[in-house]
Design brief:
It is a single chain. The chain is of the alpha+beta class and 289 residues long. It has 2 domains: 129 residues, Aminopeptidase (3-Layer(aba) Sandwich); 115 residues, Aminopeptidase. The protein is 30% helix and 34% strand. The chain contains 8 helices and 12 strands. The chain has a 12-stranded mixed β-sheet with strand order 1-2-3-4-5-12-6-11-10-9-8-7, with helices on both faces. β8 and β9 form a beta hairpin. α1 packs across α2. The longest helix is centred in the first third of the chain and has 14 residues. The two termini are 27 Å apart. 35% of the residues are buried. The model has no long low-confidence stretch (mean pLDDT 92).
Amino acid sequence: MNRPVAQTHLSQLAELLCWMDETPERRALAPEARTPEGLWWEVLAGEDEKAWVWLEEGRVQGYGALVPFWDGAALEGPIIRAGNGKALLEHLIKKAYQEGFPTLYAFPEASNRQARALLEQLGFSAEHTTYFYTIGRTDLSYPAPAGYRVERAEPCDPQVYRDLYSRAEDGWSLRLHWSDEELRQHFIGSDVELFMAYAKKTGEPVGLAELELDDTRAEIAYIGVVPEARGRGLGRALLGAAAEWAFSNPQIQSLQVRAHDHEKAAQALYRRLGFKQVSAVVTYALELY
C-alpha cells in the first residue's frame, strides 16, 4: 500500500536506498542521504518535496517522490524491491496531476530495465541519454587557441551568464528561469566555480565551464561554446582550466564530466583523455497537461 513517508519509515528507507546502490540495474534519481537523520532533513523537512513509500507486510519495499523541476516535477524513483511498482507509480502520476505539474520527468539508470519498462508502460517517453565519465588526478591543462583567453570569472554577471548560457547549447534552459539573485547566490562560496572564454579582440564571452566541488570529487556541470567559436579547441581549454583549478585542491581525487547522446565529439574527447564511463542516465518525460 502507498503511504506518505513518515519518520517511522526512515530507517527502512535508508536501507532500501543502500540496496538500490548495490547495482546499476536498480538505480534511479533518489535522495542523497543514506541515514535516517539525513533523510529527515532531505525528505521530511523539505517544504517542496512530496514523498511516498510502498509497504508490504509493514515494511518499506518501494519509494517515490515528487520534486519541482524545470517546468514541472522530477520523479525520485521509482525504487521497487518488492510489491506493486505499477500502483506506486500510478499514485505518483496522480499526485503530480493534482498538483498541476504540466510535465513529470524521471531519470533511471540506462541499465535499470525494471524501472524503464514500468515508466514506458505508463506512458513516459525517453527523451535522451546522458553519459557520465570520471578521471582521477591528472594534468588536463590545455592552452587557449590564438585570439582567445580563458579565465575564472568572479563575480558572476547574471545577464552575461544568462546570455552566454542560452547561446552555448540549445538543450540548456533550466538556468534561464533563475532570477539575478538566484544566479548570484549559486556562485557564492567555494563549492561552485565559473570559467569563461573570451575573444581577445572584442572581449566578448564565447564559452563557459561550470565546476562544482564536493569533498573529494569535482564535477563539470556544464560546458559549452557558442556556435561561431566552435572547432577551435575552446571547449578543451575550458575543460583544462576547470580541471587544473579542481586538482589544485589536494582533497579532490576525481573529476566527473557528462555528455548527452548527441554530443559525439565530447564523448570521443573524454575517452581520448582517459575518462572512464561510470553511468548512463535516461531522461523520461510524461506530459500531464
